[in-house]
Amino acid sequence: MPKLCKVASSSIHARGLFATCDIEPDTKVIQYLGEKITKKESQRRALEWEEKARKKGAGLVYIFELNKKWDIDGQVGKNPARYINHSCDGNCEAVNEDDEIWIIARKAIVKGEELTYDYGYDMEHFMDHPCECGSENCVGYIVREDQRKKVKQLLKRKKQGKTKKSSKKK
Fold first, then answer.
1. How far is CA 62 from each of CA 34, 40, 77, rounded to the nearest angstrom?
2. For residue 40, what pLDDT is reported?
3. Fewer Cβ close by (within 10 Å): the C or N end of the chain?
């Protein structure tokens, strides 16, 4: 199988993964590799990395759920797939196929185009995950598609509350 992507400089977040040739929809682009770890270890690492990320202002968690017992830590070992950035309008998706994580093209991708997918974060801590993807669908935060409308409404209410408070001060 030819190498379909390479790591390069990205306008979204420092580095990203880019197509080295045209890629057809439904193509398995790259497997997400890493260390197989227990859920308990996964949670420990995620909390540790989250604390570091808050201090540095960067994202450091590269953990994918494999099944009920195991996760994959993509930060461990050679895993170029970890450089795929989030987009609210991604051209790929991450699919769990027989306890392997594959990045699969959702649509046609042209040579040189950055590979992206929706990270699918829950809105519980959306303010901790600002988004810089620049897509028309972007709400400014990395949150899964089915929760973006709720986030937009919360941000609108928050903005309206600030506007009312500032007009009362005058």
1. 9, 15, 12
2. 96
3. C
Q: Quickly name the fold that domain 5-33+78-169 has.
A: Beta-clip-like (2.170.270)
Domain ranges of the chain: 5-33+78-169
Residues of the chain with pLDDT under 50: 167
